[in-house]
Amino acid sequence: MFFNGFSKVRGVRSGARAIAAGVALFVAGSAGCAGKPSAALPAPPGTKADPRVARLLDLRKIPYEIDEQGDYKIVEDLPEGRTQLAFVNSNTEKYGPYETREVWAAAYRTEGPFPAETANLLLADSYRKILGSWQTIAGSDGRHVAVFAMKIPADTADADFLAACIENVVHVADGMERQLTGKDDF
After folding, report:
1. Which of 5, 33, 38, 63 is such that its CA lies 20 to 30 A from the CA of 142?
2. How many CB atoms sit inside 10 A of residue 68's CB?
């Protein structure tokens, strides 16, 4: 565990596009969870990772990789041998003077739109959350992925806050994945 305290505007946002790019590996059917990095791995050539995120993750000694979009990929080990993959987006959004970024994790994947019962469960679960909500990402091939995302201040200087947000999305997403599928794909 990284933290011990936890067991808009109209139009398409670039944050949503970043999540869509990040879940492409899930939509394609691969969780991409090959194992937990033992240390920070550098960004692939040509990507632009936000160094503010690296500084905070490094302060907390949270291992990460930087993916081809420049986002921070984190794998957390969970009880019962489970793992959960989470991302901290490098790209940010502005709303007036405020800059935000998304911290998110995938939990559920379907070949088409979600069944109504599942969609309603995700909506009800979002209502109960203090921070964060469920989002649906539709792939161009018709597959859909449910991700739990938190929008946080991009310029936070608080490594504990970022760690708590990662911990939150990891546990919420893993709990929902377990509830909906009983599997550990993400």
Report:
1. 33
2. 12
Q: Half-sphere exposure (CA, 13 Å, Cβ side) for 131?
A: 17
- What is the pLDDT at residue 157? 84
Structure-block tokens of residue 75: 């794998």
For residue 2, tell me if it sits in a domain.
no
95-132 tens-digit pLDDT: 999 999 999 999 999 999 999 999 999 999 999 999 99
How far is 180 from 171, CA to CA, in rounded Å?
14
**Cβ-contact 47, 69 below 8 angstroms:** yes
- Say if residue 1's pLDDT is above 80: no
Residue 6, domain member (yes or no):
no
Q: Does residue 68 lie in a domain region?
A: yes
Residue type, 149: A
- Collapse the DSSP code of 68 into the 3-class scheme (helix H, G, I; strand E, B; otherwise coil) and give the result: coil
Find the CATH number of the domain harbouring 152: 3.30.1460.10
- Confidence band, pLDDT 50/70/90 cuts, at residue 33: very low
